[in-house]
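[agent] plan:
  1. take the single chain provided in the ticket
  2. run structure prediction with default settings
  3. attach structure tokens to the ticket
  4. add a short note for the reviewer (M.T.)
[agent] executing step 1
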Amino acid sequence: VRAQFCPSAQRALVSPPVLLDEPIARAMGAVPELARAILEQRMPYLVGQIVVKAVTILAVFLVPQGPGHTVPVLACATAAAADVALRVAASRRPRLSPGKHGADLLLVCLLLADAAACGGEASAGGKACRALRMVVPFATLVSLGGNAMRLTARQRAPGDAVEQDCEAVGVGE
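[agent] step 2 finished; step 3 output follows
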């Protein structure tokens, strides 16, 4: 009876077919544990994310177009994309969620557009580059705020995850 109400119990009843070789399957199984281990180091990980985003905001405002502008922008895009990938890999349900990952995914898209539109010296005066100079700092601040919230949030106990999974579908009400 619990299996029809609680997704975690339902997953336990259905075993996926084995399509990969054993070493590859073991390596794929290690990815969520590695992602969780990285994300458990909250203070250094999130402070690093915040510093990269703060440097990017400064680069957008203060550094003229060229490599000095593009390098921090691409570094921030890489850091934000890696953050999303780690959070998805470490989650119980490895799916992208607009509510959880949308700000970071939007930031990655805007930063890549900024690198493409403002990468060269000649493109510094273009309309797209000027527009992105106004939008990128706000998107970066929103993402930075999400990281600050994750940094100050209290950590969940290991037993909370199963209870929250079943509470989400209304078990026990």
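[agent] step 4 note for reviewer: The chain has eight helices and no strands.
[agent] ticket updated
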